[in-house]
Design brief:
Radius of gyration: 20 Å
Order of helices and strands: HHEEHEEHEHEEEEHHH
CATH topology of the largest domain: Sulfite Reductase Hemoprotein, domain 1
CATH architecture of the largest domain: 2-Layer Sandwich
Helix content: 25-40%
Length: about 280
């Protein structure tokens, strides 16, 4: 089989929306201030993290994390990622366990150019890092799994896009992770997430999700508990938002090692956490 070289394949682009362009230009301006010493590294660090950019241990270079809801990419988007990787990074993109792609050894001056290139094909690095809702993941077989209750990818994408740049999600006590699975095999591992959503169908045919909350790994692993046995799809967004509100209000902002939502539940008890969630539900 003959493969067309990447360089000869035309990448389809769209004009960058004005608000996204303004966001990129804001980052570009701050990066220039950082380069000239007009802003300190300590002040620049939380700013760049909000944009999905990590500093590396090597001086002057950055790691860029591209946020890819449910790991879903078009061929056109993947070509653009490859093009940017070859031009501005090492030529290798690292796929993460959260279905992101990371580019390493990027010069700070090139970061905004990469952001523009991604935005032209509908992609972003925004909130792939920092104390935000991180990339919303889903089972890698969603849509083709023979045992799935239904394809969860439209719902994962809806939640991801609803929370992206959402004021609710800009300064949480700590990072927040959400995952969707479509069948009982639970490939997305919903019990180890802050919110896990497992596809379900009632006897009357209505589809929705079994919703669990409070999972996590790290040095203090916890298995999520059932918050709602069945959440209809039309109640998905307010159900998720209510959990985030409780976490935003009660999360520990003084001790980073105790800041994840699992510690809020541990302190309150799950029954009280659920009561607070019910109060926050709109």
């Amino acid at each position: 089989m003959i493969h067309t070289p990447l360089s000869t394949v035309s990448i389809k682009t769209e004009p960058i929306p004005p608000d996204i362009l303004e966001e990129i230009e804001t980052f570009e301006a701050e990066a220039k201030r950082m380069a000239t010493g007009d802003v300190s590294g300590d002040l620049f660090r939380p700013f760049r993290l909000q944009y999905g950019i990590y500093g590396q241990r090597q001086a002057g270079v950055q790691m860029i994390r591209i946020k890819i809801p449910f790991g879903g990419l078009t061929a056109n988007q993947l070509r653009r990622v490859a093009e940017l990787t070859e031009q501005y990074a090492t030529g290798v993109g690292h796929v993460t366990t959260r279905q992101d792609i990371q580019l390493h050894f990027v010069e700070l001056q090139d970061v905004s150019t990469i952001m523009r290139g991604l935005a032209e094909v509908g992609m972003t690095t925004r909130e792939a890092c920092a104390n935000t809702v991180r990339n919303v993941t889903a089972c890698h077989l969603a849509g083709i799994c023979q045992g799935e209750v239904f394809d969860v990818t439209p719902y994962a994408k809806t939640v991801a896009l609803h929370l992206l740049r959402n004021p609710l999600n800009q300064s949480l006590p700590r990072k927040f992770k959400i995952a969707f699975s479509g069948c009982k095999q639970d490939c997305a591992l919903t019990p180890i997430h802050d919110i896990g959503l497992l596809a379900a169908k009632r006897a009357d045919g209505v589809i929705g999700f079994r919703m669990v909350a409070g999972g996590g790994l790290g040095s203090a692993p916890r298995i999520a508990q059932v918050l709602r046995e069945f959440t209809p799809v039309d109640e998905l967004i307010p159900s998720v938002e209510a959990v985030i509100r409780v976490f935003d209000t009660l999360g520990n902002r003084k001790n980073r090692t105790k800041a994840r939502m699992k510690f809020v539940i541990e302190k309150l008890g799950f029954a009280e956490f659920k009561r607070r969630w019910e109060e926050a539900y709109v």
